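ingest -> validate -> predict -> emit
validate: passed (alphabet ok, no gaps, 1882 aa)
predict: started
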Amino acid sequence: MSKQEVVLISLTINSTICNTMEPWWAWQFTLVTMATLHLSPCRGIEFISDTVINNVVADPRTGRLYVGAVNALYQLSPNMVVEHRIETGPKKDNRQCTPPVTDACEEAVDTDNHNKLLLVHGGKDVLVVCGSVYRGICSLRNLSNVEQLLYFSDTKGEKSYVASAEESVSVVGVMSYFTKDRDNLTVFLVGKGYGSHDSTKLISTRILQDYGDWVVFDSIIEASAVQANPFVLRYLHDFRFAFKDGDFVYFLFSRTLGVQDTKNFTFVSRMCEDDQGYYSYTELQLNCSSSNNKYNKAQAAYVAAPGEALAKNLTDSGQYGSVSATDKVLFVILTSDEDPSNSAMCMYPLRSINRRLVEIIGACYSYNGLINKKAAVYSPYSSKSEELCSNNQKDMAERYRCGAEFLPSPLASKAEFALTAEPTLVRRSPMVAVAVAVEMGHAVAFVGTAAGEVLKVHLASQSEVYGRTLGEVSASKVNKNLLLDSSLQHLYITTEKKITKVPVQACHLKTDCHSCVATKDPYCGWCVLEGRCTRKQECSRSSEENTWLWAPDQKCVQIVAFDPPNLSCKTTQQVDISIPSLPRLMPSDSLQCAFNTFVTDAVMATDGQGRVTCSLPHPAAIPPTPKQQDYVSVPVKILVNNRIEVTKGEYKFYNCAATVRKHQNTPCIACVTSQWGCQWNADDHVCSDSDDAVFRPHVVRPQQSDSCPQFESPEPLLIPVGFEIPIGFQGRNLDIYMDKTFSIGTELMKNTEKEVVQEERSKFKFHGYKFSYDKQQEVNVSFHIKDQDTERKIDSTLTVVLYNCSVGREDCSLCKHADTKYQCVWCAASRTCVYRELCPSQQQQQQQCPDPEISDIIPRYGPLNGRISITIKGSNMGIKKEDIKKITVAGVGCVHQQDRYSVSTSVVCEIGPARKVPPFDITPESNNSGAVEIEVEGGRRGKSKVFFTYRDPKPSTVEPSKGPAAGGTVITISGKDLDTATKDDIAVMIAGVPCEVLSFGTNITCKTGRYRGQKVPSDKLSVTVKYGRNTTKDVPASYQYSENPKITDYHPKASFVCGGRRIIVVGNGFDLIQKATLKVQPSSDEFSADDTPTEFVQSALSKNDTVLMFDSPPANSSDSTSLQTFLQLDNVIEKLNDFKYHPDPTFNQLNKNVITETSIIIVTGRGFSKAMTAKEAEAFVGDAPCLVNILQDDKLILDAPSSQPRPSSKRQRRDTTNDLLELVVKFGHGKWPVGKVYYARKDDIPLAIIIPAVIVPMLLFIAVSVYCYRRKSQQAEREYEKVKHQLENLEESVRDRCKKEFTDLMIEMEDHTSDLGEGRIPFLDYKNYTDRNFFLHSKDGANDPMITGRIQIPEVRRAQALNQFSNLLNSKTFLINFIRTCESRPDFNPRSRGYFASLLTVALHGKLEYYTDIMRTLLLQMMDEHVQNKNPKLMLRRSETVVERMLCNWMSICLYQFLRDTAGEPLYKLFKALKHQVEKGPVDAKLKKAKYTLNDTGLLGDDVEYVVLTLQVLVHGEGPDVTPVKVLNCDTITQVKEKIIDQVYRNLPYSQRPKVENVALEWRPGSTGQILSDLDLTSQKEGRWKRLNTLAHYNVRDNATLVLSRVLHTQSFHQHQDNHEEKNALLEDDNTYHLVRPADEIDEVKSKRGSMKDKAMTKAITEIYLTRLLSVKGTLQQFVDDFFRSVLCSGSVVPPAVKYFFDFLDEQALRHDNVDEETLHIWKTNSLPLRYWVNILRNPHFIFDVHVTEVVDASLLVIAQTFMDACTKTEHKLTRESPSNKLLYAKEISTYKKMVDDYYKGIRQMVSVSDQDMNTHLAEVSRQHTDKLNTQAALLQLYQFASKYFDVIIQSLDDDPAAQNKQLTLRLQQVAAALENKSTEL
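emit:
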């Protein structure tokens, strides 16, 4: 049950209970029920849909919501209660089906109905609902009850297709009106993108009533200019918003600028509301960001008034002119194509948009489209290149606000004149929705994000997000329909399946003024006198000053000052409190002050200064003073009417007695210097409140610290430890302590005190103390002094410094280095540094320190070349850096580095290179080792016991040897003595790129840096290790930088924040990576104060070169939407933009806790499918896993374990009485206990009962059934097996043969097809194509003057007459008369008619639209004749009339480009494959029969033996390269030449290759060459028959070399023969044969004597060869299918001409009653497949520059016949006597027939091609190709017909009134006179 249904039920129950029960019971029940609904004000009221919500609209009159979802439509009350619901899907539909969809449409399946458009028409109480099924047809429903359908019709055809059938195409609409004949009609305007099966109209006006010829939803304005081009997807629109303002309608959308440019740009288009032809339609580009228009794609928009504050900001910015608070502003959310995760909001005042549009329109109407001499306008949906704009009167834009038919339209601004705004808000996450409201003059934007939250933005000069709306953040993105209710109090937020109603403000959640004002929410201010955060209108006295406070203008009511500012805790009086911003009180209001719990009435001064007087609490009521503090702060509250807190503060009550707590050594000074003005009574030794009335001699007044009795000025200030030194000091103001004795002490004296001796009146001293202290060199010691009699402390400021000489001075040098004021000496006896007096004798106080001692050397090894730093550790190494006189290391001088000297303990020097000293045969390594010596001031020397060694490090290997160019690879360098010097001394470089040293020892590891070069080098790079400044070592092994690893994909692309989901990353180059990690970190957010976000990291679980495997890291973040995921592969960091983190799912408690044997467990909740699948999810009952069968977003279905498992925890196991098991669901790392389950107890039924009762009878029944069935079927099976065996043998042999042949063919054709593109296919150009199609059938064939071009055009005067004749032909009246007259003549035979039609096609090629019109007219006349004669099926069967030939030529013209783009390649491949297969076996050159063919009459019956030879052919005069050519040894010489020419000149079209008769073939087997020819003196003779020479005749072997040479003129084969008689003998009758000799008379007589048995055998042997037909067919099947598919597939590309002509036939069939579906099928077949495709298939040379041999032609005839059979409706009944050709493709014919039917059906369901679209297409063809054709020659040839039938034509024109009106007779006579005596030379 849905939540909204629960609401309804609960409310109904409540009302019932209230009427029947006691009131208090009713109220209790109501409260409990409402509590269970969770409808708290913080979360808002929710509506949840079962399916995805597409659109939401509100009725402004009633506040109702209408929700269009997938397959459902809801009507909700303003409080989200479902009033009505209707299912709208799924429906039986398919995009291929034309509505109404019936069972006849086989493709129809259950299809989801996505809501595409919802519009409220309140005036007529109608809701317009458009869905995606049935091509986007709409319906009308009752606004009060959407279940009531007011109108729906799916029989009105294409004109009723409003929306889009495609889910991704956006649709927007707006209600409007339209005037027609003084009637005001209700319409709605629709803007939609282009879908492949939609109407092509981008913007259409749809009527809501039947009117005249218009039906409901009819598109009533045919403005073809504003629509998508159906042939080229030039503009991809994405409509986002539509609205009205004033008299205009606006559409906001983004689109591309053209075919090449894929970047989107945002436009707003505008037109007048009652525009009768979209004449005012103008587009204005909107830019968001002036720098680079970064935010270019509109996502959502809203129109609202800006309010006073934002209007002022917009005006002050200077970008928009003057903007008032009531003007409308278009607020647009845009995203960036460059980075879709970034988004911005821009604002465009409508006044600015209109102003710029008027500039654009005015520029086009009046200034040739120029603004400031720059082109500012273009026509967006036209390819016209001519001038669009004009130079009319200057005020045209004002006079024609809504355009006009004679004015240019549609218009669009060029990019330079776009309206640009700066983003007012930029986010690093996608914003997807916006709504704007005004509160207190301030504009507030509610912005929906892709993460499912709605942000609140205060729009100002610096707009800022100040909060989020209340409610649970959904993980799905916010729908662009973000609605405010009619009161503007609530916001309806729509996400994927949920609508939430939330208040626009949550002021009540702020409980104090500061938190209320700090949000800067324009809705919320602090209502001072009510003490709550409210909207201004909710604050009762908000009009009065200072009663409603709102930031940033105002601050909370604050206490500015107290008078007196503080008081003693021992006094009581009144205090004045200054509160300047205190509101004025009414007489009825009371004012109170509350000091802690003490409340007293307050009095407010009447001077308006905000001064309040309060009584202070009694001292007893004041809290005690805290420790370590001399005052207590008491909270003060100012209350109105005893309950409302206006403001608060703190009042300090001080305690003078407590001032001495913090400074007990100086009580008097602390007392009188305190901030409270206390006084010190020396007699009583107390600090008290200041009292001017007290005049006693020993009272010290405030701030008179000099008058305090005190001891000061100790001498000396330095005291050594361990030695008593007397300390003297001064006393002052001690009169009161005359004759008193004092004691002195401090903490370091360990609770002992010494007596103070008074030397003079004011001078005192004590004898000192042996202090002990060794924690640091110095410490301050403060002394206190007491009166021995009273133990009271008298102020003492005595502080001295205690020091210890030995701390930090462990040797003599350090001791001597101490400051002389300490008097430290090095005592030889104790070997310590002490105070001078502590070393007893002068001898023991050493004047000179001992010799230096060296304890260590760092490092102990150095390179031979030196130049590294050595650190010498020890003691007594000088007092200052100048004391170091000399350092040697292993006998080599070492330069002292004075800046690194540490007194006595450390000396650093740089060593030089090692010495080479005799004996020279000892290696330097063993020779250069020695101690370190140091000499200091006074000639003292020290020598180390450890030795330093020079040695030569030898690095040898690098591992690994390669890594990515980004670096980050840790390499290890191994070798000998690498730990020479220190880590700081070495540097590793790879070809100049530093490698960061990580560790140093016997091996060196370092991390490679990023390679900085432009291109990653393929060579290996040298690795060098540098020791110090003078030693560089090349590592013999090298290192190679490789391309960085590349990530191609990863899946899945989502995870819950609990992590643990297995992520697979696919790419390459991962083997080079050492460390792969998945990192997640939050992006910075304005609500988060954390500047250093936490990073969550997970290392790869496994990896190979192409796959990485991770578990998604747990991301402990409250905001999952802000998380960004990165993949770090060493130094390569790749951001995974598409990877999303979702909040963890929520689980409901289990409803059903009992598990039976067969039961499933259903777990409910929310958000399961966001980042989990059933395969990945895990569940456990106790310790046993459950299978997760189904996982939906709100539901999990689990299979429970069949037997009861054990509990998962040990505690549960111990508790044997508890049968409850915990059910745990595990998603990745997340585990959720969802409840306890238990297994139902069952009574065990014994197996002994189950088996006989159920299983045994079942088995018996099955056994009997099987036995009966087997017996019956065995006999038939045996018979079948025999026949099957025979068939299988034959089938297997044919199959194997086909497979082998096909494989061979594909391998051998690879060269022909691998690079086959348009450039490699020898297409004829347009002229040759049309010449061959139009005129090759003529009586002269290839010699026709229209093909050869040998025709004389007359002189200029006659050429002008030809132009006049052309003008005559352009008169429809003349041309129809001309054609009818010619066709009526008996000598105008079919050949003449076809020739006439072709001439007419060329002559009118410049006006193909006119030509099409003539053709349509003639076709309609012919159609009427056939239908009236009751033989419509015969129409278009032959080409015996002019119009039939015209249609054939029209198809040829219109399908030329389709052939080149689509069908040409499969046809050419079929032709090449067929030719290749035919020539693979023997072909009889005389009989024209082949071993491999599809035609049984052309099958070579005899089994000819042959061998395949490969010849090496050298072309004379074309270099030394030879071409291998495969031939057969049974080929004639002419056949060999043809194959050689085919191979050698394969890249040339046939017409450019040398002809066979123009080349000679020479074979050079030895020193002499031999010319090869078909016949020569060596030819074999058999009786009167002579055999053509073959390669076998000449005994040419495999790999023989032949020379091909061209001859200058055609030479006969006997050119080299000298004997004239021999020549004559060769020229006898042509009794030659090639492979099979025809039977002559003698043979025939012999054969007649043969037996009947021989004849039967001969027939059988011939028919055995018929299996070759099957073999060839099987080999070529793929090529035949590909060609048929390319021609008969409506799913991809259908030429517009085909759709146009088929629609024309459909229309005419509907016009005539006796034209059935079969007749229509015949018409279509006769007009396209039989008229054009069969012709092209039979004659590939009509489209390609190729030569078709007779043998290939015979096979093409079979394929063409198959194509013809497939296009006929009649069933072909095949028998054993049917021709082999028919039997060959009998099996495929049914498939091909279905292809034809589907093709015709698919074309019928396509979007129509209008006359205008077709004319545009034809005009483009005319423009491209007419100048290539010889139209003058065609006109001259046509005139021959006019001249031949001149008198009859004149008579026909005279009889036609229309011709008389146009004086056509006279014009023809003038042409005849001009062309008299013309001559034509062929």
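The chain has 37 helices and 106 strands.
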